[in-house]
């Protein structure tokens, strides 16, 4: 996360620390905060920093096979420079995977956040019935693991068991192949939308509820309809939470792995390298080429970081513009 | 944002803005539709799990079958009840992992919220970048490093990497800042309490509602995790539920009889978490999940 975002996130927290008077005779020991943070820092070093460093090191090396590659000493690790990177970038499978994820993300993110916003506004509208039950049911898929969600939807897409296909068949209509061709994007996107809408709805609804009621009262006195209040008052005021959910949705999209992997046993049209992350897994454990897997992994990490920081900068610039106006 | 355009028609229904008690029909219908959409796979799996093997492919999918008890018995008998082993493993990974992760987050979040010290924002910022790292990027080198110390295919290989949760630390910091007043900390200090005692006896009880949220968040995240066990484990006695069902489905493409087991297993796997959510939502606010604190 950028320092800017960090600063934004910590704005609430600052007050406490600044209120603490200067250390008196009984002031806190200097080392105390570091001791409290020690477990987090140690875990970060061992399970985040070290693996990333190791991945970078692996990506810069390769295995050289001498002779027939038999016996000890026939295979040794040598420096490869950026060769793994140029190979990975020239690999059409990686580009194909990236394009597939881009198409998938272009469906998932707008649909999921659009639905989350609509449902959050509905939950916030006082004349809508069944809001408590609706909120709970729409949030329910959050409790269901992605693998099981993909598995359940996978069966619903499978012609031999799906109620959809059976109904279409009874009506004499053509049965769509949901697990192949372009429909596969919709099939996968549907799983993500189903699983993610509820959580985002909760985030947006929470920030809607933080808006003081006087604002609505004022807007209503000015003759605003419920719709106008939603569009002109509520949506602009929850923009920060929309930015946050958008950001996390993009990251989750880039990391899609378990849903396409789970659909693979049900269809032949999901290749092992459907998404770039699946390609990393395939390279590392399928083909056993950890060096090129590491290079691909580093490339994906860099793209993710670049996209995240670019997005946060853009969001920050727009916020500043808004403040200036 | 195509779907967002659905709303415009919705609230146009109310002609009189000053009659707030009347039910807005269209928006209510939209909410109902959303709720139904979320229920579809759940209703399907409940129905499908009641079907005996041949009924699954022969009867209408949303009609109940006659084989629920047989299916559960079959699942129970499959490889000497390995299914229940997966369930227990999932509970172990999620329970222990979430508890320890919650403790790490509480300590870190408390320190970041209450103390002023050199490097505070830098440490926080670096810890938060962990959110951005795609799990595969971490998991592959984590696997190779754990292999060096012979910990792959071990319970610890699935537990250790999930203990640090950047989002948990972020939430803990917000909760600690909102729930632990600085004058209370200062007063305890004046009374001669040590820093650790202040945390244990004063701050921790105040942070408790927030910590429950972090625990649940991590519990769900670990319970739902697939990638890490997928990479780390090969012995199916150590599999969590998600990985177990996946391998079962994988074998099912050769012998469709296993599909019934997969479906029954899925149903039994979602029951505990759904029950947990229905139970706790009475006395726990979902709002806390997005970092909201009551002012």
TrEMBL record, chain B:
Spans through the membrane: 23-47, 91-115, 122-146, 158-180, 201-223, 257-280
Keyword match Magnesium: no
Cellular localisation: Cell membrane
Membrane disposition: Multi-pass membrane protein
Domain of life: Bacteria
Keywords from the UniProt entry: Cell membrane, Membrane, Transmembrane, Transmembrane helix, Transport
Pfam families per the UniProt record, alphabetical: BPD_transp_1 (PF00528)
GO cellular component, one term: plasma membrane
GO biological process terms on file: transmembrane transport
ABC transmembrane type-1 domain sequence ranges: 87-280
The keyword Secreted appears for this protein: no
Family: Belongs to the binding-protein-dependent transport system permease family.
Stored PANTHER family: ABC TRANSPORTER PERMEASE PROTEIN MG189-RELATED, ABC TRANSPORTER PERMEASE PROTEIN MG189-RELATED-RELATED
UniProt-recorded name of the protein: Carbohydrate ABC transporter permease
Species in which this protein is naturally found: Streptomyces radicis
Highest classification ranks of the organism: Bacteria, Bacillati, Actinomycetota, Actinomycetes, Kitasatosporales
């Amino acid at each position: 996360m950028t320092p800017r975002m960090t600063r934004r996130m910590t704005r609430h927290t600052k007050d406490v620390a600044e209120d603490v008077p200067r250390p008196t005779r009984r002031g806190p020991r200097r080392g105390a905060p570091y001791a409290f943070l020690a477990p987090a820092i140690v875990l970060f070093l061992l399970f985040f920093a070290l693996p990333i460093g190791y991945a970078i090191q692996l990506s810069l090396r390769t295995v050289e096979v001498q002779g027939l590659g038999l016996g000890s000493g026939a295979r040794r690790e040598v420096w490869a420079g950026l060769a793994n990177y140029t190979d990975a970038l020239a690999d059409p499978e990686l580009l194909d995977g990236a394009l597939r994820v881009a198409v998938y993300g272009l469906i998932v993110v707008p649909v999921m956040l659009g639905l989350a916003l609509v449902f959050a506004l509905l939950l916030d509208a006082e004349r809508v019935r069944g809001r408590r039950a609706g909120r709970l049911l729409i949030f329910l898929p959050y409790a269901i693991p992605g693998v099981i969600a993909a598995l359940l939807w996978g069966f619903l897409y499978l012609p031999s068991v799906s109620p959809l296909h059976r109904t279409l068949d009874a009506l004499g209509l053509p049965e769509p192949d949901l697990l192949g061709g372009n429909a596969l994007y919709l099939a996968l996107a549907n799983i993500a939308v189903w699983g993610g809408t509820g959580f985002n709805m909760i985030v947006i609804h929470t920030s809607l509820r933080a808006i003081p009621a006087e604002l609505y009262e004022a807007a209503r006195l000015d003759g605003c309809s419920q719709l106008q209040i939603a569009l002109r008052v509520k949506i602009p005021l929850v923009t920060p939470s929309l930015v946050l959910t958008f950001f996390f949705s993009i990251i989750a999209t880039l990391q899609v792995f378990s849903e396409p992997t789970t659909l693979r046993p049900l269809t032949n049209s999901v290749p092992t390298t459907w998404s770039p992350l699946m390609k990393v897994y395939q390279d590392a454990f399928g083909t056993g080429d950890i060096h090129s897997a590491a290079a691909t992994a580093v490339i994906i990490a860099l793209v993710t970081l670049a996209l995240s920081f670019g997005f946060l900068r853009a969001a920050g610039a727009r916020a500043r513009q808004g403040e200036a106006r | 944002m195509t779907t967002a355009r659905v709303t415009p028609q919705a609230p146009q229904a109310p002609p009189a803005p000053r009659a707030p008690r009347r039910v807005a029909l269209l928006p209510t219908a939209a909410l109902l539709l959303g709720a139904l959409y979320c229920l579809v796979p759940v209703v399907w799996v409940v129905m499908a799990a009641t079907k005996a093997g041949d009924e699954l492919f022969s009867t209408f999918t949303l009609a109940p079958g006659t084989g629920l008890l047989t299916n559960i018995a079959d699942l129970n008998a499959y490889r000497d009840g390995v299914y229940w082993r997966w369930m227990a493993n999932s509970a172990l990974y999620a329970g222990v992992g979430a508890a320890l992760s919650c403790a790490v987050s509480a300590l870190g979040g408390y320190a970041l919220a209450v103390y002023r010290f050199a490097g505070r924002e830098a440490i926080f910022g670096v810890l938060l970048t962990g959110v951005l790292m795609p799990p595969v990027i971490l998991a592959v080198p984590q696997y190779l490093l754990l292999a060096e110390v012979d910990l792959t295919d071990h319970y610890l290989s699935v537990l250790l990497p999930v203990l640090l949760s950047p989002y948990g630390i972020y939430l803990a910091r917000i909760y600690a800042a909102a729930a632990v007043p600085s004058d209370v900390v200062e007063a305890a200090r004046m009374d001669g309490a040590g820093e650790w005692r202040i945390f244990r006896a004063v701050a921790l009880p105040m942070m408790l509602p927030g910590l429950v949220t972090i625990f649940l968040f991590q519990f769900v995240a670990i319970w739902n995790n697939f990638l890490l066990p997928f990479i780390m484990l090969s012995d199916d006695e150590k599999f969590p539920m998600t990985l177990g069902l996946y391998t079962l489905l994988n074998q099912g493409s050769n012998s469709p009889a296993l599909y019934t087991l997969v479906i029954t297993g899925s149903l039994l796997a979602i029951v505990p978490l759904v029950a947990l959510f229905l139970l706790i939502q009475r006395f726990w606010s979902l709002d806390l999940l997005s970092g909201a604190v009551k002012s």
